[in-house]
Design a protein that fits this description.
Length: 208
Protein backbone atom coordinates (compact mmCIF):
# COMPACT_ATOMS: atom_id res chain seq x y z
CA UNK A 1 0.00 0.00 0.00
CA UNK A 2 1.28 3.44 -0.93
CA UNK A 3 2.21 5.76 1.92
CA UNK A 4 0.78 9.19 2.68
CA UNK A 5 2.39 12.59 2.20
CA UNK A 6 1.76 15.07 5.04
CA UNK A 7 3.05 18.61 4.64
CA UNK A 8 3.44 21.41 7.19
CA UNK A 9 3.23 24.99 5.99
CA UNK A 10 3.32 28.50 7.40
CA UNK A 11 5.15 31.79 7.38
CA UNK A 12 8.02 32.94 9.55
CA UNK A 13 7.90 32.38 13.31
CA UNK A 14 4.76 30.22 13.33
CA UNK A 15 6.41 27.34 15.22
CA UNK A 16 6.96 24.86 12.42
CA UNK A 17 10.04 23.21 13.93
CA UNK A 18 8.41 22.61 17.31
CA UNK A 19 5.19 21.32 15.80
CA UNK A 20 6.94 19.21 13.18
CA UNK A 21 8.62 17.35 16.06
CA UNK A 22 5.21 16.97 17.76
CA UNK A 23 3.63 15.55 14.59
CA UNK A 24 6.56 13.18 14.14
CA UNK A 25 6.16 11.96 17.72
CA UNK A 26 2.43 11.36 17.30
CA UNK A 27 2.75 9.50 14.00
CA UNK A 28 5.61 7.30 15.20
CA UNK A 29 3.72 6.56 18.42
CA UNK A 30 0.82 5.39 16.23
CA UNK A 31 3.16 2.93 14.51
CA UNK A 32 3.63 4.80 11.26
CA UNK A 33 6.79 4.06 9.24
CA UNK A 34 7.78 7.70 8.85
CA UNK A 35 10.30 9.71 6.85
CA UNK A 36 10.75 13.32 7.97
CA UNK A 37 12.18 15.82 5.51
CA UNK A 38 12.06 19.46 4.43
CA UNK A 39 11.97 21.80 1.47
CA UNK A 40 14.04 23.13 0.02
CA UNK A 41 16.32 20.26 0.94
CA UNK A 42 15.96 16.64 1.91
CA UNK A 43 18.80 15.19 -0.16
CA UNK A 44 22.48 16.05 -0.41
CA UNK A 45 22.03 17.99 -3.65
CA UNK A 46 18.79 19.65 -2.59
CA UNK A 47 20.39 20.79 0.68
CA UNK A 48 23.17 22.49 -1.32
CA UNK A 49 20.51 24.30 -3.34
CA UNK A 50 18.82 25.27 -0.05
CA UNK A 51 22.00 27.02 1.03
CA UNK A 52 22.09 28.94 -2.26
CA UNK A 53 18.51 30.03 -1.75
CA UNK A 54 18.69 31.05 1.90
CA UNK A 55 22.15 32.57 2.30
CA UNK A 56 22.17 36.37 1.90
CA UNK A 57 24.50 37.54 -0.88
CA UNK A 58 25.40 40.92 -2.34
CA UNK A 59 24.30 39.98 -5.86
CA UNK A 60 20.58 40.55 -6.57
CA UNK A 61 18.85 37.20 -7.07
CA UNK A 62 16.67 36.94 -10.16
CA UNK A 63 13.12 35.94 -9.23
CA UNK A 64 13.10 33.43 -12.07
CA UNK A 65 16.43 31.97 -10.93
CA UNK A 66 15.02 31.64 -7.42
CA UNK A 67 11.90 29.86 -8.69
CA UNK A 68 13.90 27.46 -10.86
CA UNK A 69 16.25 26.66 -7.98
CA UNK A 70 13.25 25.84 -5.78
CA UNK A 71 11.91 23.43 -8.38
CA UNK A 72 15.35 21.96 -9.11
CA UNK A 73 15.69 21.07 -5.43
CA UNK A 74 12.12 19.72 -5.43
CA UNK A 75 12.69 17.54 -8.49
CA UNK A 76 15.70 15.91 -6.83
CA UNK A 77 13.85 15.58 -3.53
CA UNK A 78 10.83 13.87 -5.07
CA UNK A 79 12.85 11.49 -7.24
CA UNK A 80 15.43 10.49 -4.66
CA UNK A 81 13.48 10.55 -1.38
CA UNK A 82 9.75 11.24 -1.46
CA UNK A 83 8.56 8.89 -4.21
CA UNK A 84 10.74 5.93 -3.12
CA UNK A 85 9.43 6.29 0.45
CA UNK A 86 5.79 6.53 -0.59
CA UNK A 87 6.17 3.62 -3.00
CA UNK A 88 7.46 1.33 -0.28
CA UNK A 89 4.53 2.26 1.96
CA UNK A 90 6.22 4.75 4.28
CA UNK A 91 4.61 8.04 5.18
CA UNK A 92 6.48 11.27 4.46
CA UNK A 93 6.23 14.32 6.73
CA UNK A 94 7.63 17.35 4.90
CA UNK A 95 8.38 20.80 6.31
CA UNK A 96 7.02 22.94 3.43
CA UNK A 97 6.19 21.76 -0.08
CA UNK A 98 4.43 23.14 -3.18
CA UNK A 99 2.12 25.50 -1.26
CA UNK A 100 5.19 27.39 -0.06
CA UNK A 101 6.15 28.13 -3.66
CA UNK A 102 2.75 29.62 -4.40
CA UNK A 103 2.93 31.62 -1.16
CA UNK A 104 6.51 32.89 -1.38
CA UNK A 105 7.18 33.13 -5.10
CA UNK A 106 3.58 33.54 -6.28
CA UNK A 107 2.37 35.73 -3.41
CA UNK A 108 5.48 37.37 -2.00
CA UNK A 109 7.27 37.82 -5.32
CA UNK A 110 4.05 38.30 -7.38
CA UNK A 111 5.32 35.81 -9.95
CA UNK A 112 3.15 34.45 -12.74
CA UNK A 113 0.96 31.69 -11.32
CA UNK A 114 0.63 29.95 -14.67
CA UNK A 115 4.42 29.57 -14.76
CA UNK A 116 4.39 28.04 -11.27
CA UNK A 117 1.53 25.73 -12.29
CA UNK A 118 3.48 24.60 -15.36
CA UNK A 119 6.53 23.77 -13.26
CA UNK A 120 4.32 22.02 -10.72
CA UNK A 121 2.88 19.79 -13.45
CA UNK A 122 6.35 19.05 -14.80
CA UNK A 123 7.99 18.23 -11.47
CA UNK A 124 5.18 16.85 -9.29
CA UNK A 125 3.17 15.15 -12.05
CA UNK A 126 0.28 13.59 -10.09
CA UNK A 127 1.91 13.86 -6.65
CA UNK A 128 -0.23 15.70 -4.10
CA UNK A 129 -0.15 15.92 -0.33
CA UNK A 130 -2.77 13.83 1.45
CA UNK A 131 -2.97 16.45 4.19
CA UNK A 132 -1.46 19.90 4.65
CA UNK A 133 -1.43 21.61 8.03
CA UNK A 134 -1.12 25.38 7.71
CA UNK A 135 0.12 27.11 10.85
CA UNK A 136 -1.37 30.59 10.67
CA UNK A 137 -0.21 33.59 12.68
CA UNK A 138 -0.27 37.36 12.25
CA UNK A 139 2.81 38.64 10.45
CA UNK A 140 3.67 41.06 13.28
CA UNK A 141 3.83 38.27 15.87
CA UNK A 142 5.54 35.80 13.55
CA UNK A 143 8.31 38.18 12.51
CA UNK A 144 8.83 39.28 16.11
CA UNK A 145 9.43 35.63 17.01
CA UNK A 146 11.67 35.07 13.99
CA UNK A 147 13.86 38.08 14.77
CA UNK A 148 14.26 37.00 18.38
CA UNK A 149 15.53 33.49 17.66
CA UNK A 150 18.46 33.86 15.23
CA UNK A 151 20.08 35.71 12.36
CA UNK A 152 17.63 36.20 9.52
CA UNK A 153 18.06 34.30 6.25
CA UNK A 154 17.60 35.88 2.81
CA UNK A 155 13.83 35.44 2.83
CA UNK A 156 13.38 36.57 6.43
CA UNK A 157 15.02 39.89 5.52
CA UNK A 158 12.14 40.83 3.23
CA UNK A 159 9.72 43.68 3.96
CA UNK A 160 6.53 43.17 5.99
CA UNK A 161 4.43 43.61 2.83
CA UNK A 162 6.14 40.51 1.40
CA UNK A 163 5.08 38.41 4.40
CA UNK A 164 1.55 39.82 4.37
CA UNK A 165 1.27 38.63 0.75
CA UNK A 166 2.69 35.23 1.72
CA UNK A 167 0.12 34.82 4.47
CA UNK A 168 -2.75 35.98 2.27
CA UNK A 169 -1.78 33.49 -0.42
CA UNK A 170 -1.56 30.62 2.05
CA UNK A 171 -5.02 31.44 3.39
CA UNK A 172 -6.47 31.78 -0.10
CA UNK A 173 -5.15 28.34 -1.01
CA UNK A 174 -6.62 26.90 2.19
CA UNK A 175 -9.98 28.46 1.36
CA UNK A 176 -9.84 26.96 -2.15
CA UNK A 177 -8.84 23.47 -0.97
CA UNK A 178 -10.32 22.98 2.54
CA UNK A 179 -10.35 19.18 2.34
CA UNK A 180 -6.56 19.06 2.03
CA UNK A 181 -5.35 22.22 3.77
CA UNK A 182 -6.36 22.52 7.43
CA UNK A 183 -5.67 25.88 9.06
CA UNK A 184 -4.17 25.72 12.56
CA UNK A 185 -4.35 28.89 14.67
CA UNK A 186 -0.75 29.24 15.85
CA UNK A 187 -1.31 32.19 18.20
CA UNK A 188 -2.66 30.42 21.35
CA UNK A 189 -0.38 28.64 23.87
CA UNK A 190 1.50 25.66 22.45
CA UNK A 191 -0.71 23.02 24.08
CA UNK A 192 -3.77 24.53 22.40
CA UNK A 193 -2.02 24.65 19.03
CA UNK A 194 -1.02 21.02 19.37
CA UNK A 195 -4.56 20.01 20.38
CA UNK A 196 -5.72 21.44 17.04
CA UNK A 197 -3.00 19.48 15.25
CA UNK A 198 -3.95 16.27 17.02
CA UNK A 199 -7.58 16.67 15.99
CA UNK A 200 -6.50 17.23 12.39
CA UNK A 201 -4.28 14.15 12.37
CA UNK A 202 -7.18 11.99 13.60
CA UNK A 203 -8.77 12.56 10.19
CA UNK A 204 -6.15 10.19 8.81
CA UNK A 205 -7.78 7.30 10.68
CA UNK A 206 -4.97 6.85 13.20
CA UNK A 207 -5.39 5.84 16.82
CA UNK A 208 -3.90 8.91 18.47
Amino acid sequence: MRGKLITLEGGEGVGKSTNLAFIQQQLERAGVDLVVTREPGGTELAEKIRQLLLTPISEPVSELAELLLVFAARAQHIEQLIEPALSRGAWVLCDRFIDATYAYQGGGRSMNLELIQSLESLVLKSLKADMTLLLDLSVDIGMSRARARADLDRFEQEQMSFFEAVRATYLARAHADPDRILVIDAEPPLEQVQAQILNALKRLGLDL
